[in-house]
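re: ur question from yesterday

yeah so i grabbed the chain u mentioned. its 438 aa long if i counted rite. heres the sequnce exactly as i have it in my notes:
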Amino acid sequence: SEVPVLSEVERELVVQRWNDTAAEIGDGTLNVLFEEQAARRPEHTAVIFEDRHVRYGELNERANRLADHLRQCAGVRRGDLVGVLLDRGVDFAVALIAITKTGAGYTVLDPEFPDQRLTTTATNAPITTLITDTTHAHRVTGEHTTLLTDTDATHLDTHPSTNPAPGISPLDSACVMFTSGSTGTPKGVLSSHRSLVSTLTAQTYNTFGPGEITLQCSPVSWDAFSLEFWGALLHGGTTVLQPGQRPDPALINHLTRKHHVTSLQLSSSLFNYLTDQHPDTFTTTHTAYTGGEPASPTHTHRLHQHHPHLTITNGYGPAESMGFTTTHTIHPTPQPPPTIPIGTPLTNKHAYILDTHLNPTPIGTTGEIYLAGHGLAHGYLNQPTTTATHFIPNPYGPPGTRLYRTGDTGHWTPHGTLHYTGRTDTQTKIRGFRIEPA
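ran it thru and got these structure tokens back, copy pasting raw so excuse formatting
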């Protein structure tokens, strides 16, 4: 392990040059960046749900009233965790924004999960307050304050609609996402405002802005939710909320064409299905993302034949690095490529291919993928041992920075792109869900 197998030039490439992604993003937090957009374009549509079009000004005022109610009546304080158990809709959007304004973090409880898992998640977090409605309130037990959006709404009009005073740090916790493993105990990934903001700011993998319309169809408890929701609201765009809790291909097809959605984020399985069964889904979109599982060269090639204008991007990254960490733009080719790379690191994110001694592997040699940079989570909630095992000191960054050990394997190409090759364990993914067969 002490014998250097890379030349100085090659080592500089894989460690430094291909990870030279630094850019200034400022110290904005989710709530502040959203408030800036609401001040600039209060009449612009922020959220569409069914027949409702909610403007930025209205959405911000509703979130401000709820945030004040959470502080004054529920005792929510900076650093707390607040659970959200609501069906996807406008009240759901208001709740998430309001929680960030209080300085607390949110954890989304998926209404489709069994009651036992909802209670276990709420207890393990542990949440201090639960925002829900009369439909779901009985499903979660525990020692927390419950706020019902359908019966407590009349009290909100008495609260101020102005923005609360600033005082939240980019390093404060913004959310807890529980991993999608369905055969083991889900781990709560504790992520900061900086993790989300850096993933969505100063990036080149998508066009963010007032003219962009995204469809929020990913499960709301997943990291993919952040791109579809916050990616629009932090930049003055519009997010269309799909009714229901699971991606519905027919609804995705209908909503995308009805609202002229410009970008779609899809698991590879869903991407393939829409390509085969509903290729007209992508008529108005300029960018489509495939991720969660290895991309299908056959389907990306087929979709390019239908829509040559479309930018298809293969994204890679776990929840522990706030979703996309590397991306690769797939260009049209006469024939399907043999494989599709996972690309290069995003702005302010880094990727390393290391051996078992944490030495960088030569170009073309398979090793384990380690991630670093602003997107990294604080760790696993209330699991210090697991956190210490997976988030380790970073020997290739400034003191105090960390590496996340993904368990995925890959290699660099001579052109500086990453290829995913498999796992170091038996974990697999089915429709984006982490499955441990053992």
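noticed a couple things. Residues 119 and 213 are 35 Å apart (CA to CA). also The longest helix spans residues 56-74.
anyway ttyl
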